[in-house]
Amino acid sequence: MAEAYKGANQYAKAGDWYTKAPEAKLANKDQVSALDYYNPGNTYYFGSNGGTDTVTLNKAIAAFALLAEKYPDLTTGHYWVGKATAAKDVEAKSGIAKPYFEKYISMAEGEPAKNKAGLVTAYTYVMVYYYNVEDKAAMNAVIDKVTALDPENSVVKDIKAAEQNLCGFCKSGRCRRYQIKFTVTIPYESGAIALLSFLPLFVCST
To answer: Which of these, 92, 89, 96, lies nearest to 125 by C-alpha position?
Structure first.
């Protein structure tokens, strides 16, 4: 049933069915795999409509937290708790996802090539948070990590332009300042992940 609901894009219902797998295995005293814990969280996350369905999003966070608890040596649970929690803080202002992403980073950055996509996602959230709280030293330290993995990272370029009081187009600094919305889309193993944020940037108005 879970696969049928998933195939019909009814992710929340699929998640409800996926939660039955660990319960059934525990009842039969069988081994519950990491995938058994991951599947409910994954389907709930995609069923939350970008985090707008907070009830379903909270189910995703709880499922991923259980994965992180049961399999603490895997990066997957820690990353996805951070990713799902970040959906509640798309502007990276409160930093509620920061502890989870930092846990993931501490485990994943030893193999940057293998974990590049996840690290860029986690670094980006933390970087934008430091930008928002005006902690330039911490922000610049994360910028260095991002550019080491992604030298052409657009968010880094936008932050640097804002920090230099420069328009990203004419480089003059004479343009009017706008609060604009942008979307950073970073590929991940299961598909494209959209990280939404806001930055005060200088947009060419000439």
So the answer is: 92
